[in-house]
């Protein structure tokens, strides 16, 4: 098997950081290219770093070439500051980047979506994620893998206060045998499963992994 070139969008986020760490240590990949807005304190012989302006994505199209695109970009309404800005990050930037990758012949697209993603959802966040899922399914990737994880356990330094509360709540419920399929998932585990599944023998173009699926997958 020839070595692969991985592209990572959202590399400075919780899941993105774990994706990059695993990819750099994975012998199946000889090149890892990340696209970030801010400086990252990371150096490796396999790593290429591109600092980009997301409002001018088309200017970087020629850089978006490789074998696999891992997309872990995302924000919250609080961090974004408005629904319009959150939509830019969680839909517009994600879709535009995916389209450039598809147009450039990237074969595999691996997307971190959201629990309950549905374009018809009455709730704003899962509605955005659902719309993104439906849009990227129409692009010309050979393989599309969409992950809808439950609450994620981020690195301790990145955990928000609200996330800490929700993780504790779900763990308590799980201990009582309630909502086991929504047991919080460490971002490290999600990243590991994403990378290993890109090398699986997927027969359908699109595969969606729901929260319950992720706990059943042994990789």
How would you characterize this protein structure?
The chain has 219 residues and is of the alpha/beta class. It has a single domain (4-157, 186-216), classed as Rossmann fold, CATH 3.40.50.720. Helices cover 37% and strands 19% of the residues. It has helices spanning 14-25, 77-80, 83-103, 124-136, 161-175, 187-197, 211-216; strands spanning 4-9, 29-36, 47-51, 68-71, 108-112, 143-147, 152-153, 185-186, 206-209. The strands form two sheets. Strands 3-2-1-4-5-6-9 form a seven-stranded parallel beta sheet, with helices on both faces. Strands 7-8 form a two-stranded parallel ribbon. α1 (14-25) crosses α6 (187-197). It is globular, with a radius of gyration of 17 Å. The mean pLDDT is 89.
Quick rundown:
By secondary structure, the chain is an alpha/beta fold. 37% of the residues lie in helices and 19% in strands. Strands 3-2-1-4-5-6-9 form a 7-stranded parallel beta sheet, with helices on both faces. A two-stranded parallel sheet has the order 7-8.
What are the salient characteristics of this protein?
219 residues, seven-stranded parallel beta sheet, two-stranded parallel sheet, 37% helix
Topology record:
Layout: E1 4-9, H1 14-25, E2 29-36, E3 47-51, E4 68-71, H2 77-80, H3 83-103, E5 108-112, H4 124-136, E6 143-147, E7 152-153, H5 161-175, E8 185-186, H6 187-197, E9 206-209, H7 211-216
Parallel strand pairs: 1-2, 1-4, 2-3, 4-5, 5-6, 6-9, 7-8
Kindly report the average pLDDT value: 89
Give the quaternary arrangement of the chains: single chain
CATH fold description: Rossmann fold
Beta-strand proportion: 15-25%
Radius of gyration: 17 Å
Q: Total number of β-strand segments?
A: 9
The sequence of SSEs as H and E is EHEEEHHEHEEHEHEH
- Write the CATH homologous superfamily: NAD(P)-binding Rossmann-like Domain
Distance between the termini: 19 Å
Architecture (CATH level 2) name:
3-Layer(aba) Sandwich
Largest sheet: 7 strands, parallel
Number of domains: 1
Structural class: alpha/beta
Give the strand order, joined by hyphens, for the main sheet.
3-2-1-4-5-6-9
The stretches of 5 or more residues where confidence is low (pLDDT under 50) are none
- Secondary structure: helix percent: 25-40%
CATH class: Alpha Beta
Number of helices: 7
Shape descriptor:
globular
């Amino acid at each position: 098997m020839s070595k692969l070139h991985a592209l990572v969008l959202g590399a400075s986020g919780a899941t993105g950081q774990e994706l990059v760490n695993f990819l750099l240590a994975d012998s199946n990949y000889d090149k890892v290219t990340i696209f970030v807005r801010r400086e990252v304190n990371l150096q490796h012989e396999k790593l290429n770093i591109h600092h980009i302006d997301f409002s001018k994505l088309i200017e970087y199209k020629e850089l978006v070439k490789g074998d696999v695109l891992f997309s872990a970009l995302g924000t919250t309404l609080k961090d974004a500051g408005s629904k319009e800005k959150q939509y830019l990050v969680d839909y517009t930037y994600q879709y535009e980047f995916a389209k450039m990758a598809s147009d450039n012949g990237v074969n595999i697209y691996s997307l971190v979506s959201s629990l309950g993603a549905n374009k018809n959802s009455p709730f704003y966040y899962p509605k955005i994620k659902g719309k993104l899922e439906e849009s990227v399914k129409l692009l010309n990737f050979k393989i599309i893998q969409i992950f809808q994880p439950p609450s994620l356990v981020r690195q301790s330094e990145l955990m928000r206060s609200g996330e800490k509360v929700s993780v504790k709540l779900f763990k308590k419920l799980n201990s009582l045998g309630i909502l086991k399929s929504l047991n919080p998932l460490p971002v490290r585990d999600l990243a590991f499963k994403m990378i290993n599944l890109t090398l699986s023998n997927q027969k359908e173009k699109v595969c969606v992994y729901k929260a319950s699926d992720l706990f059943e997958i042994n990789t």
